[in-house]
Design a protein that fits this description.
- The chain is mainly alpha-helical.
- Helix 5 runs antiparallel to helix 6.
- It starts with 10 loop residues before the first helix and ends in a 12-residue tail after the last helix.
Length: about 160
C-alpha cells in the first residue's frame, strides 16, 4: 500500500508570499508613476506652460508628483519580511524623501543613500528586485538632474518640494 502525501503551504507562508507580491507590485506602480511624473514635467516645459498660464507648471504635474509620494508611502508602510522587501522598502523611503525634499541638498542626500543601498544590498536578492531598485536609484538621479536644471533656468520659478 502506498501513501500519497501532498504538501501544502501553510496560511502564514501564503500570506507572506502575498505580501511580498504586494510589495513588488506596489513598487512597480510607484516606478510607473515616477516615469509618468518626469514625462509630465517635460511635456509642461516643452509646451511652455509658464508662458501661457503665467505659472511655472500645470496642475497635472503637481498631481503626478503627489501620486508618486502616495505610492512611495504605501510601499514604505509595508513591513519588510525578506531581503528583497527590505531593499524595496528602503528605496521607497528614499523616493518619498526625494519627492518631499525642500532643497537640493536633501535630494543629493537621497541620491547618495540610494547608491549606498544598492552597494550594500545582499547578493541573494532576486534580479528582478535588484533591477527595480536600480530603476528607483536612476529615478532619484533624474529628479535631481531635472530639478537642478530647472533651478538654473531663469524662466522657471518651480520650487521644491515636488509633491507639495
Amino acid at each position: 500500500m502506498s501513501k500519497n502525501i501532498t504538501t501544502t503551504r501553510s496560511r502564514a507562508a501564503k500570506a507572506a508570499a502575498k505580501q511580498e507580491d504586494n510589495s513588488f507590485d506596489h513598487f512597480c506602480e510607484m516606478m510607473v508613476r515616477v516615469l509618468l511624473a518626469l514625462e509630465e514635467e517635460e511635456l509642461a516645459a516643452d509646451a511652455g506652460w509658464h508662458m501661457i498660464c503665467h505659472q511655472p507648471y500645470c496642475a497635472e504635474v503637481d498631481a503626478a508628483w503627489k501620486l508618486v509620494k502616495i505610492q512611495a508611502d504605501k510601499v514604505s508602510e509595508l513591513k519588510p519580511r525578506s531581503a528583497n522587501e527590505k531593499l524595496l522598502h528602503r528605496m521607497a523611503v528614499l523616493m518619498s524623501c526625494a519627492v518631499s525634499a525642500d532643497c537640493i541638498k536633501v535630494l543629493e542626500a537621497a541620491r547618495s543613500h540610494a547608491v549606498r543601498c544598492m552597494l550594500k544590498a545582499d547578493k541573494d536578492i532576486s534580479p528582478e528586485v535588484r533591477d527595480l531598485a536600480d530603476e528607483a536609484r536612476d529615478g532619484i538621479e533624474q529628479i535631481l538632474e531635472h530639478t537642478s536644471a530647472r533651478s538654473c533656468d531663469n524662466n522657471s520659478t518651480r520650487h521644491l518640494p515636488l509633491a507639495a
